[in-house]
Amino acid sequence: AGMGLEYRIAPHWSVKGEYLYYDLGKRSLVSSFGFPTPSSGYQSQFDFATRGSLARIGINYRWDDTPVAVAAGMPLKARPVALSLWQLEVGARYFYSSGRTRYRLGDPFNAGQLNSQLTYKALDSNAGEGFGRIDHSSGVFAKGFAGAGNIFKGTNTDEDFPPASFPYSKTVASVNNGSLWYGTIDAGY
Question: How much is the pTM?
Answer without folding.
Answer: 0.51
